[in-house]
Amino acid sequence: MFHAGFVLDDPGEVALEDYARALTRSREAEAGRDPLDPAQVKGVHVCGLASPPAPQVLTDLEAFARDLAVHREGSGLGWA
What is the pTM of this model? Predict the structure, then answer.
């Protein structure tokens, strides 16, 4: 889970999930929305990892989500 929630549009959410998959080399990734405020993404669930992601990976994912929320124009598409 992220320390804060981030408002992401649909393309931003897809970009975050793609980035999480690439960064962790997981099979799947799904953005986790806050059940009390569905506009806010609170984390990313990744599947198929042998061990939990390292703290630096989690920090990187949160920074990417923050950047997507701040720079909404383009929603982070083309991040790769």
Answer: 0.85
